[in-house]
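Lay summary

Proteins are chains of building blocks that fold into shapes. Our project writes down both the chain and a compact code for its shape. Here are two examples, one after the other.
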Amino acid sequence: MENKIDGMLTHAENVILVVDMQNDWVLPSSPQHVAGAYATLPAIAKFLDYGRANDWAVIYIYRIHRPSGIDAELFRRHFFEEGKPFCIEGTPGAAIPDEIAPKQGDIKITKQRFSAFFGTDLDLVLRGLGAKNVYVTGTQYPNCIRSTAVDAMGLDYNTTVVTDCCSAATEEVAEANIYDIRNMGIPCVPSSEIMK
């Protein structure tokens, strides 16, 4: 079966999700940055190279808000009211860092909440691809990684959290979430185990 049309995958059992790896969350110079995110860029880049070389689909999940912040969670709207908006479409802060920038054929999906599935067409895209295995990468553990992984598992995808490709504000927060996620039955392993 032909898996591509004009260089774009039409079938992929394995899919890498890159969640919220945008400059506003990743760059240490950003007020919203997640302390551990920048350090994961090399591991994510290597894992993406591996996936693309094996015809895995890569889906970038962008958090995108309106400049007013009316589509942001209530607890975050004060940032917009105080003149500190984040993840505004078309701004440098909403872009993916160059080290892991999307390539031709990668898929882009936008969201406004923690889970990459909430209010998006991600499930439809995954089912259209015939996806079976979902590998979650990105930032950050207690919010978007955890909720995306739980929703993927709940939708019956074989879900794996790629530990060296995910981050949190502190190692303690990361380890606590990995502990919880594993106890929900979701494997949490480093990319080296997947790329064997």
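And here is the second example, written the same way.
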Amino acid sequence: MKAESKQSSDNRYQKGLKTITAVNPNAEDDIRQMLKDICPDMGKFIIEFAFGDIYSRPGLDLKMRELITISSLVTLGHPKTQLTRHVKNALNVGCTKEEIVETILQMAIYAGFPAALNGLSIAKEVFEE
């Protein structure tokens, strides 16, 4: 049973790695660097679960998934690091600046103006890089 579980985990990781690399070619190294001193397993979980199990599902393309992620992060109102990363990811998968801005603007209705303004400020920083 453990061998099957290991194989399943390896398959999920490889599937996730393929997907996350399409979104951000440096993601695996970035995640590994960010978490190596505190919780390396979190990086494995991000790649296996978020990108191997969820992002790689059929039904939504990577552009749509990134716009949904941006809207969720704006709604939360506080995850600047993750929002910055996902605005960059959205650009990497072909989203336009206008699509990103419109997604964030839409959140003013549901998350409030402060959350949308913070999101727009982060997007502007990314666009200026």
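What can we say about the second shape? DSSP finds seven helices and no strands in the chain.
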